[in-house]
Specification:
- By secondary structure, this protein is mostly beta strands.
- The protein has a domain of about 200 residues: Distorted Sandwich (Beta-galactosidase, Chain A, domain 5).
- The protein is about 0% helix and about 40% strand.
- The protein is built from one helix and 24 strands.
- The strands form six sheets. Strands 7-8-9-10-24-20-19-14-17 form a nine-stranded antiparallel β-sheet, with no helix packed on it. Strands 4, 12, 13, 18, 21 and 22 form a six-stranded antiparallel β-sheet that branches.
- The longest helix is centred in the middle third of the chain and has 4 residues.
- The radius of gyration is 18 Å and the shape is globular.
- The chain starts with 5 loop residues before the first strand and ends with a strand.
Amino acid sequence: MTASLVEVRSDGLSARINPLGAELWSLTDAQGREYMTDANPAFWTGHAPVLFPIVGALAGDRYRLGTSEYPMGKHGFARGSLFEVVETTGDAARFRLTDSAATHAAYPFAFVLELAFRLDGMRLEMEASVANPGAVALPFSFGFHPAFAWPLPGDAPKAAHRVTFADAEPQPIRRIDPPSGLLLPKAFPTPVDGRDLAPDAALFVPDAIIWGHLSSRALRWGAPGGSALDIAFPDTAMLGIWQKPGAAYLCIEPWAGIADPVGFDGDFRDKPGVLELPPGDTRRFRMDVTVRPG
């Protein structure tokens, strides 16, 4: 299903968002060059799914709240839900998803999830807000999952692209168990050299690279002689980087949440990475992407 895309523009960029999932489908510059995935169905047709109310997979695609169990597929239901288009202007749009009888079957909580997009010159500003209109604490996780072009527009070869973190990232990384999608207990040596990660297809054969706590809250994706993206994520301490090996995209995914660890069978509220939002409160998550054309 594809809803009619909502387009916003600035003097330097154009973005198109699908109300189905409030998903960013396209980010182009004034020359019409695309900075997002080509969504080649041979690899992955996603663009930038919104991850809510979980990030990653649950053991058996189920979770427990007290004495009750509920079904929940990988990354939650928001990515497959039709959001209301609340507001559109020339350079901004806002989308909203609220709880319903359908969501209560998998997630028995009141919530309001909004995604706001705004273009300011060469910067795309994205803000997600999770509000709790209910009478009990709201347990949830949230994540961005954008797939950026690899290679980016310009003359730089694919192999020259680097992820350059704002700070050194010497800590070990985590991996998932591919058959189950659950987080392995073992920590793995980082592939980051100082601040630089040189991605290649072989790195993603075991699936995503995961940081349970990242020092940086910003990074650059690009290569000398080509374009670059400056990406800021001030509100999220976790990060996943992923691609289907050989595809023409790299997913750079700021997360507030993570997959079930292998062997976890506790209450959802005790799951690593789950946040609890008090009644009447709102939690916001920002991700800004500044395009540096090459």
